[in-house]
Specification:
The chain is an alpha/beta fold and 332 residues long. The protein has a single domain, classed as NAD(P)-binding Rossmann-like Domain (Rossmann fold, 3-Layer(aba) Sandwich), CATH 3.40.50. The chain is 39% helix and 13% strand. It contains 10 helices and 7 strands. Strands 3-2-1-4-5-6-7 form a 7-stranded parallel sheet, sandwiched between helices. Helix 2 packs across helix 9, helix 4 runs parallel beside helix 5 and helix 5 packs parallel to helix 7. It starts with 5 loop residues before the first helix and ends in a 7-residue tail after the last strand. The mean pLDDT is 92.
Length: 332
Amino acid sequence: MTPPSPDSEAGDVAVQHRKVQREQDAKDRAAGDGEVKSKKAVQAGHRPEPENPMPAQHLKKPGLEADMDLQPRFKASGYLGSGKLNGMVALVTGGDSGIGRAVALLYAREGAEVAIVYLEDEQVDAEETQRCIQAEGKHCVLIPGDVRDPAFCNRAVDETLQAFGQLDILVNNAAFQLHAAGIEDITDERLDLTLRTNVYGYFQMARAAVPHLRRGGSIINTGSVTGLEGGAQLLDYATTKGAIHAFTKSLASNLLDKGIRVNAVAPGPVWTPLNPADRSAEEVQNFGKNTDMKRPAQPEELSPAYVFLAAPSCASYITGIVLPVTGSVGAA
């Protein structure tokens, strides 16, 4: 029997290629001219989260959660505590609302005592956070002040130590954000405000906390997807978030021998007072729509990541990472 020639084998392969192509073309037409991706928001949790359009609302800064038409979800009803943070004490900046409130609540549910730092104008939100933490059976100390002030950062740590006798976890989360059409819109005053809140505040709080953190303690910084990918209209904010990511990795190396871990979470768009206090009411309606999941996150979808990174039982071998929780594929 004469073996097939190379030319005939090549012809057979081409026939097979065309056959597979025809089959896929038919599937594409049946799906609607190749549009196979759903335009609906993705729900992957234990219950559906709010979808776009979000309420058309604009808040005056710093933005109160109590004033939001759609209250952010932070209670994580599907999350059951298991004592991962028993016997520990956490200090959370920006802990009155948004991600900070959600983190403080889950820390309490996992057994930690909690102190929260917030601006004096956010007293209403802070007291609600305190009430929710107390409902979990834990204590919550309220510490109003401005993280731009290094003396206040020292005092916040001192008040936490006075209340609880120790400090195990620092969550740097306080932030200032405001969009700008171009770099020429960002004045020296505004640049200073953003840098001193988002970078100096993190650095100063860490500097105050580190001498009191014990082996097994940790620092968790809130970064941002803008620190990974940039933000065309968030030039100063994105700059600070990139700096926070670098600070996280550098401090992790610096504290490694002390057994203190330092990590960051980089959220995508999250439904908190920060964003209605940044954008116009009309723009807020589409907030988060451009993620792969086509909706913003709720704070309760971020807070378990902070528990994971804080708990020695979960993350004792993890330091110096920036964990993206962005609602999109491949954010890094």
